């Protein structure tokens, strides 16, 4: 890869993985980065959030794609395409202004519906051709690619995967989903609608997609914005307890390390008043903090003991689901964690 090639950095996360904490520390607002949060078509910087919200409104979350109506399919395809178009416009605008492209997206938001169906409901539930958005790079999609984005578009990015211990991330996500549902007077999400979020399957699949690509082009001569340093894996524990890891990462993606922030003022009540209820709930810990909270580590977590706490907090059925999801995710978590960036 030529040293003068523009770089696009994709931070691929999942809900409750401390991604907002990492972005706060990186202080992107003061870096040479066009704010994605304010860009048309994004929701708090997530370009495919609206597609997820549409699926939620249409009650398609967790529903096998074979049961979707033609109208629902058309609406979903349009929403995914709009998400891509907004992302592509943002990338083009950033590069035209000489900005560093740095985008954070929750990997589950990118997951292609046919592959999601076969993961949630069982392999070969759907034989339908996987969906893919239309892009300037084409529409080819390989077996290792679990997303609605084509291979060639993914290869234009230098990816970083942020992971967090499932026994911390998954109960936290369910807690937030439950609280928001109760606030809105809605029914709490059925476990089937959460299965695709309570997994590291997508993160590992996409990581292996990039590894496979790098093995084919070990000298970095492909069209991808990749080199020997990527893909990178960050663990939330290191974001919280190892500032040296964050500093190293910031240098690798071309950020000004002198602008990193490990402390800040809590969010003002005035700002909170004008914030959407869902964002206020999802960012409640960060907004109330004045720096990195060190009690959010996964050190010495015992899943058996955590399961007892979930039983008390959430009841037997949800505790059973959480334990199932956490234990199923652990092999992927340990695989990715073993390959994480170190000081």
TrEMBL record:
It comes from Polytolypa hystricis (strain UAMH7299). The lineage of its organism: Eukaryota, Fungi, Dikarya, Ascomycota, Pezizomycotina. PANTHER family: SULFOTRANSFERASE DOMAIN-CONTAINING PROTEIN. Transmembrane segments: none annotated. It comes from the Eukaryota. This is Sulfotransferase domain-containing protein.
């Amino acid at each position: 890869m030529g040293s003068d090639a523009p770089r696009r950095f994709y931070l691929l996360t999942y809900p409750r993985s401390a991604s907002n904490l990492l972005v706060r520390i990186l202080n992107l607002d003061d870096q040479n980065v066009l704010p994605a949060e304010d860009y048309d078509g994004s929701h708090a910087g997530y370009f495919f959030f609206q597609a997820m919200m549409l699926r939620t409104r249409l009650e398609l979350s967790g529903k096998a794609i074979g049961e979707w109506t033609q109208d629902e399919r058309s609406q979903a395809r349009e929403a995914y395409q709009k998400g891509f178009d907004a992302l592509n416009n943002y990338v083009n605008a950033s590069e035209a202004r000489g900005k560093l492209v740095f985008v954070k997206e929750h990997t589950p938001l990118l997951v292609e519906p046919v592959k999601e169906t076969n993961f949630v409901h069982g392999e070969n539930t759907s034989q339908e051709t996987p969906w893919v958005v239309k892009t300037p790079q084409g529409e080819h999609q390989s077996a290792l690619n679990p997303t609605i984005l084509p291979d060639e578009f993914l290869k234009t990015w230098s990816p970083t995967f942020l992971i967090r211990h499932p026994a911390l991330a998954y109960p936290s996500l369910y807690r937030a989903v439950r609280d928001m549902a109760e606030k809105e007077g809605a029914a709490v999400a059925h476990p089937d609608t959460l299965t695709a979020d309570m997994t590291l399957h997508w993160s590992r699949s996409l990581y292996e997609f990039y590894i496979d690509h790098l093995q084919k082009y070990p000298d970095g001569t492909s069209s991808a914005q990749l080199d020997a340093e990527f893909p990178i894996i960050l663990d939330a524990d290191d974001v919280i307890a190892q500032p040296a890891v964050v500093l190293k990462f910031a240098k690798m993606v071309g950020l000004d390390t002198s602008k990193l922030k490990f402390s800040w003022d809590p969010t003002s009540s005035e700002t909170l008043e004008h914030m959407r209820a869902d964002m206020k709930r999802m960012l409640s810990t960060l907004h109330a903090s004045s720096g990195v909270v060190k009690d959010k580590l996964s050190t010495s977590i015992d899943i058996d003991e955590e399961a007892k706490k979930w039983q008390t907090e959430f009841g037997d059925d949800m505790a059973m689901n959480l334990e199932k999801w956490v234990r199923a995710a652990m092999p992927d978590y340990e695989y990715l964690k073993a390959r994480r960036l170190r000081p």
